[in-house]
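Bug report

Summary: structure tokens for Peptide/nickel transport system substrate-binding protein differ between web form and batch submission.
Environment: batch mode, default settings.
Steps: 1) Submit the sequence below via batch. 2) Compare with the web form result.

Sequence submitted:
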Amino acid sequence: MRKWLAGLAALGMAAVGILPAQAAEPDSPKVIRVGATQAMDSMNPFLAVRLVSSSIHRWMYGFLTVPDSKTLQPSPDLAESWTTSPDGLTWTFKIRQAKWSDGQPVTAEDAAWTFTKMMTDDGAKTANGPAVENFASVTANGQELTIKLKAPQASMLDNPVPIMPKHVWEKVGDIAKYDADDYPAVTSGPYIAVEHKKDQYVKLKANPDYWRGRPKIDELQMIFYDNPAAAVVGLKKGDIDLIGRLAPPDFEALKGTDTIVQWNTEGRRSTYLQINHGATTSDNKPIGDGHPALKDPRVRQALHTAIDKQKLVDEVQNGLARPADGSIVPPMYKDFFWEATGAEKVSFDLAKANKILDDAGYKKGADGIRAMPDGSRKLQFRFSIHTDTPIEDKLAEYLTGWFKELGITLTTKRLDSSKFTEETGTTALFDIAISGWSVNPDPEEVLATHLCSRRPTASGEGGGTESFYCDPQFEQLYAQQQKELDRGKRAEVIKKMEQRLYTDAPVIALYYPNNLEGYRSDRIASVTSIPEDKGMLYGGSGYWPFYTLEAVSTNGESDEGSNTGVIVGVVAAVVVLAAAGLFVARRKRGVADERE
């Protein structure tokens, strides 16, 4: 058996074109290896949209502000202070004295160039375009950055755009075609990217000139696995030192290993159903082939009433989640979280759900399947999920059973990630789909995905919609919260937006998954979560955990240095996939990791 595995490992090495590393010297650098089941889509921060990409870019670049490690509220980063005019239309930021990793000073001109590029270049808008939609102008004077807005914007201090070095990036011709694969990268954050192999790894070195001080490790590697099972094997074997964003079965597979710490905390994701309630383009033209019955809010209400969310938590999420009796903002954000109570709360009740449909005129036929009131179509819906996602398959089984009790047929439709994104976000060729979002400390962006303006154009471009929603009441509330600079008052408006999504049901929140991670205590001496009190590691919304990482001193016994961690990680993936007969080059963009 050992000979077989050794031969397979050697085959894996040959397949990816790498050779074993030499034995480590006693003074080997301190290296921490992080496993991920999603690969970088781009090293270019203007283009990268995957969660893993935004995480790595947080480690590399500075922002105007970052979430405070204790409160998650905006705190100074490259902007050490700021002021705003009484009317809320002019923001002035003082950029701190800091250096780029090539020794050049960081100035307000770098920030002004970054934002202006996004305002004027469509390619540069790909990742974070909405963040500058409300900017009228951006100017710089020494270390002073001035941003003038078209309208007041309460979320100004939660801007998600990394500041780029003007002297490097102004030389780029076409941003939309630039891979940013010149190494070492020029950065201002805790780490500097020094190497990247597509779909395999990214290697980062500690930035000795980082303004907060050099990180406590020498090198941080992000190693990409093709599936969670391979990553879990890698963690158990010691090929990687930390992995996050685990599904419950993979998390529970870590039990019984003394050297692995299981990290189970409240998460920042919500999982929900996206309903095609009559999709339209941004110019209000019908699009897609959604079932007409889903345009009726009574049908959506009946579907909601027929879902036993506690059972989904217990049996689909293995108890490692919280039922969503609210909207899409998870409960970890206490200021903004809204939850239904009393008569407004939708509780599991199949008899009530059937009565809603009976009263609305959707009669059952001889076959037990309901039809439209005019008899034109039966209530037969498609449920779009991702391929190779056991949890989504299991979810589909429960929904199919409950909806059958209503006289509704649900057929599972499995799509690869690219097709899933296209059909549920652009062409609207779906009825009901699984969806989810990793919500930032300020929830404005996730709420903005339900605005009229986020619908795609007639040609299928742009948008960024999460539901094809276009509701005047929701739009009015969004504009109101945007102008409200008092945090408490703004939170109340945001809760009304969540309430509107809950009652009108263009999406139906199912549960808030726990943040499930694991790391090796024989490799990681300490790590500080964000927030610091029972927060997240890899799954968090800031760089703090990876800046505070400390490695266990091994006297050269297991710190393999720059290459070995990458090699063993890739080989582990090859071994597991080959054993399963699944060694194919494939990038997955599952909903669980896709969005932020």
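Above is the batch result. After comparison, the two runs are identical; trailing whitespace caused the diff. The longest helix spans residues 487-504. The chain has 17 helices and 21 strands.
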